[in-house]
Design a protein that fits this description.
By secondary structure, the chain is mostly helical. It is built from 18 helices and 6 strands. The structure holds arginine (ARG).
Length: 454
């Protein structure tokens, strides 16, 4: 009987151990963990909390562990629970009992908060670089097709002509804001939590400023309870990532639409499309579709961490271990999506003729014709109603504005004269010569500015 109970307890113990272990995923933080431990050890020695020779042995041990991991020689053990315990256990194997001094004036609670902040700080900089690369591709594509006029859309209905470059530069601005959001997130991530101990601070004369400097943090956390229980920086990263993915999915959607045979505005390089196994004519924009699709999981990760953190009492709770996988997944998804997009954009061929043909019937100039009447003294409301009737007439006759005779124009308003034929796609875009407008002059200036930014 007692034999059975033991066996049951063993099994239960193993079950709980497997359930609670984070080693399979938090080993990704090994570099940050060791970096943090080395800075902490230096500080302990500097403050004479441990001896200089102890510190040297600990640092040498940690350094060789780091090499072992990098060379793939390290044996991660789930039964040791997490990355911190795995490294510490190995340090004991390497340097003996002296290893026990490393964890002086520290807890795994401030340790994991540190590892995560170091990780997120690095990833923010990588994210910003990846966004920049994407912006670069957008600017290149815009520059290579500077003169192309395309239909601008509202409600996905042709609305007014715009320069394709203007449309692409809209995304440049969008991603500019995304970068700013990540820079902003960096400010709040850039705070050293180490020294907060388990929750209340530590009873040793530690030098937190020194550790901050060693690790490149510009600030030290002001409240130990907050420092071990705050995961806002992860949530901010994931929220910023969700926004960026949302933006990427809008671009993806346009690329998918534009590459369809209905639009035919662009062609995506073969490396970034796939053929169909049974329909030989197809070139599927899979990369763009997947980026659009992956937006869902990035939103999901954000929802996950928000929900995990909701209603957690201060300070550390084990629930918070759930912060990692979603974060890692978001980082990986965001980075691969940005990178593949930047490369895909480089392969896009613009079909200027198809774009032009899409606006052959020049009803897209209706606003310009109304503006023409306004310049001749009519109120905009009246001009709008006249041009509405004119458009209906032209559409029914199957004629473009340019194909209408002056007599036909006159039956709608005596204000029309020969110069109405001067209204063209080119004159329409050129007329919008205000900051932020689509006139070639403005777009040229915007391109120049964009170039300077990246
Ligand atoms: N694996 C833990 C986590 O990721 C590290 C902190 C553990 N602290 C503790 N008191 N068990 O949250």
């Amino acid at each position: 009987m007692s034999y059975l109970r033991n066996r049951f307890q063993k099994k239960a113990g193993k079950m709980a151990q497997d359930y609670t272990a984070s080693t399979p995923f938090d080993q990704r933080l090994y570099r940050q963990d060791i970096e943090g431990s080395i800075a902490h050890t230096k500080m302990l020695a500097k403050q004479e909390i441990i001896t200089g020779s102890d510190a040297e042995a600990i640092i040498a041990g940690l350094t060789s562990i780091s090499e072992e991991i990098e060379q793939g020689e390290f044996q991660f053990k789930s039964e040791l629970e997490d990355i911190h315990m795995n490294i510490e256990a190995r340090l004991f194997e390497k340097i003996g009992d002296m290893a026990g001094k490393l964890h002086t004036a520290r807890s795994r609670n401030d340790q994991i908060a540190l590892d995560l902040r170091l990780f997120v700080k690095e990833e923010i900089l990588k994210t910003i670089d990846a966004i920049k690369a994407l912006q670069f591709s957008l600017v290149e594509l815009a520059e290579a097709n500077k003169d192309v006029i395309m239909p601008g859309y509202t409600h996905l209905q042709q609305a007014q002509p715009v320069l394709l470059a203007h449309h692409l530069l809209a995304y440049f601005e969008i991603f500019q804001r995304d970068k700013e959001r990540f820079y902003d997130c960096l400010k709040r991530t850039d705070v050293l939590p180490l020294g907060s101990g388990a929750l209340a601070g530590v009873p040793y004369p530690i030098d937190r400023e020194f550790v901050a400097q060693e690790l490149g943090f510009s600030k030290v956390s002001a409240n130990s309870l907050d420092a071990v229980s705050d995961r806002d920086f992860i949530i901010e990263y994931e929220a910023s990532a969700a926004l960026t993915m949302m933006h990427l999915s809008r671009l993806a959607e346009e690329i998918i639409l534009w590459s369809s045979s209905e639009f035919g505005f662009i062609e995506i390089g073969e490396a970034f499309t796939t053929g169909s196994s049974i329909m030989p004519q197809k070139k599927n924009p899979d990369v763009a579709e997947l980026a659009r699709g992956k937006t869902g999981r990035v939103y999901g990760n954000l929802m996950g961490i928000l929900t995990t953190m909701k209603a957690l009492p201060l300070t550390y709770n084990r629930d918070m271990q759930e912060d990692k996988e979603g974060l890692f997944d978001t980082v990986d998804t965001l980075h691969s999506s940005l990178e593949v997009f930047a490369e895909m954009l480089k392969t896009i061929k613009v079909n200027a003729k198809r774009i032009r043909d899409a606006i052959k019937k020049d009803y897209i100039l209706a606003t310009d014709i109304a503006d023409y009447l306004v310049k001749k003294g009519m109120s905009f409301r009246e001009a709008h109603s006249i041009v509405a009737k004119l458009s209906e007439y032209a559409i029914n006759k199957g004629k473009s504005f340019h194909e209408l005779s002056l007599n036909e124009y006159h039956s709608f308003s005596p204000l029309f004269s020969e110069d109405v034929y001067d209204i063209t796609l080119e004159s329409s875009v050129a007329a919008r010569n205000i900051i932020g407008g689509t006139a070639p002059k403005q777009v040229e200036a915007a391109l120049k500015k964009a170039r300077e930014h990246i």
